[in-house]
TrEMBL record:
<keyword id="KW-0346">Stress response</keyword>
<dbReference type="InterPro" id="IPR029016">
    <property type="entry name" value="GAF-like_dom_sf"/>
</dbReference>
<dbReference type="InterPro" id="IPR023120">
    <property type="entry name" value="WHTH_transcript_rep_HrcA_IDD"/>
</dbReference>
<keyword id="KW-0678">Repressor</keyword>
<dbReference type="GO" id="GO:0003677">
    <property type="term" value="F:DNA binding"/>
</dbReference>
<dbReference type="InterPro" id="IPR036390">
    <property type="entry name" value="WH_DNA-bd_sf"/>
</dbReference>
<comment type="similarity">
    <text>Belongs to the HrcA family.</text>
</comment>
<dbReference type="InterPro" id="IPR036388">
    <property type="entry name" value="WH-like_DNA-bd_sf"/>
</dbReference>
<dbReference type="InterPro" id="IPR002571">
    <property type="entry name" value="HrcA"/>
</dbReference>
<dbReference type="InterPro" id="IPR021153">
    <property type="entry name" value="HrcA_C"/>
</dbReference>
<dbReference type="GO" id="GO:0045892">
    <property type="term" value="P:negative regulation of DNA-templated transcription"/>
</dbReference>
<dbReference type="Pfam" id="PF01628">
    <property type="entry name" value="HrcA"/>
</dbReference>
<protein>
    <recommendedName>
        <fullName>Heat-inducible transcription repressor HrcA</fullName>
    </recommendedName>
</protein>
<feature type="domain" description="Heat-inducible transcription repressor HrcA C-terminal">
    <location>
        <begin position="103"/>
        <end position="337"/>
    </location>
</feature>
<keyword id="KW-0804">Transcription</keyword>
<comment type="function">
    <text>Negative regulator of class I heat shock genes (grpE-dnaK-dnaJ and groELS operons). Prevents heat-shock induction of these operons.</text>
</comment>
<keyword id="KW-0805">Transcription regulation</keyword>
């Protein structure tokens, strides 16, 4: 009996159990898979796999089902995530391409991912704390108020009212805005805020120090606003209908704790494998309510600009947000991993300067 064949048996058990959600026996394995050995040999292999903790037999006369360890081995041995077909990629592009805003795109992405996987889909909006400045527009709105329209690299748009007395002339305002955009585009919001304060102390813009302080404060508050990340969720009701209430109740409870889900998926998206996705199974989620669930996530977008706050600059490839799927441990890992990665790549193309194919 070879170890390699035994692991082929394990893979076959996982595949069959995911498909049927019924305990898998040796007879069905030899019938459905070309293992090249007898049913008795397969039965011995399954017994050895049970001893090693990869399988468990729920009832004496029943077949076996994968354990958390068995699922982990299966996922780790998926050498590559199978790309979606051209038709599936076009469907993603067509469905998300009709969006009218970033928020609409993210909502559609959650609905699409839930539809593909039959599980709960979660899509986070880019955190302002991870964003860089793309453009600032400053316009007068009253005798002593200005409106600053701040656009980030991820497409987020924020409006801030700035009280400045006296109101600067149109010429001064235009020159200041032009300088801010030239000096700050591509910088983190915190670093841009510091740059703007410094501009207000120069000879050229010294008369606009109050404006510089007000605009700097607006950017700093945006950068510190961790709650500016929205989370879009879809597929909860469908998942509840597909599985028993006792199995799904803890998972549905966990979904109510959005802060916990956000922290888990955000952390997982920054620790992706070479496949481009991160997978946590059962106890690996470190969340009691998810002991019988798996979480698959991938980051989208990336911070490719200078974000350091000191004199030294650095580049980082950390994602600006995540997209993911949550379902039972017997989920279809192959399909879910491919779908999560494809949607993440499409969203990266949407918000990034270098658009990429959704799943090249």
């Amino acid at each position: 009996m070879t170890q390699s064949r035994r692991m082929l048996v394990l893979r076959a058990v996982v595949e069959d159990y995911i498909r049927s959600q019924e305990p898998v026996g040796s007879t069905s394995l030899t019938r459905n898979h070309h293992l090249g050995v007898s049913s008795a040999t397969v039965r011995n292999d399954m017994a050895a796999l049970e001893d090693e903790g990869y399988l468990v037999q729920p009832h004496t006369s029943a077949g076996r089902v994968p354990t958390e360890k068995g699922y982990r081995y299966f996922v780790d041995r998926l050498a590559t995530v199978v790309p979606l077909s051209p038709a599936q990629r076009r469907a993603i592009g067509n469905f998300l391409g009709g969006s009218v805003s970033l928020e609409d795109t993210l909502q559609r992405a959650a609905r699409l991912l839930a539809r593909i996987t039959g599980q709960v889909a979660v899509v986070a909006s880019p955190a302002l704390s991870k964003s860089t400045l793309r453009h600032v527009e400053i316009v007068p709105v009253s005798m002593n108020k200005l409106l600053a329209v701040i656009i980030t690299d991820t497409g987020r748009v924020a409006q801030h009212t700035l009280e400045v007395r006296p109101l600067p002339s149109t010429e001064l305002l235009a020159t200041f805005s032009e300088t801010v955009n030239a000096r700050c585009a591509g910088k983190s919001l915190t670093l841009a805020a510091k740059t703007i304060v410094a501009l207000g102390k120069t000879v050229e813009h010294g008369r606009l120090s109050a404006l510089a302080q007000a605009l700097s404060h607006a950017l700093t508050s945006m950068a510190a606003d961790e709650q500016a990340t929205d989370m879009y969720m879809a597929g909860t009701s469908k998942l509840a209908h597909q599985h028993s209430s006792t199995e799904m109740a803890p998972l549905l409870d966990a979904l109510e704790e959005q802060v916990v889900i956000m922290r888990l998926m955000n952390s997982l998206s920054e620790e992706v494998t070479e496949n481009g996705v991160g997978v946590a199974i059962g106890s690996e989620t470190h969340t009691p309510e998810l002991m019988h669930a798996s979480v698959i996530t991938s980051g989208y977008g990336h911070i490719n600009a200078t974000i350091s706050e000191g004199s030294a600059s650095a580049q980082t490839g950390k994602p600006v947000a995540f997209v993911g799927s949550i379902g039972p441990t017997h989920m279809d890992y192959v399909t879910t991993m491919a779908a999560v990665r494809a949607v993440a790549r499409y969203l990266t193309g949407i918000i990034g300067e270098d658009a990429t194919d959704a799943d090249s």
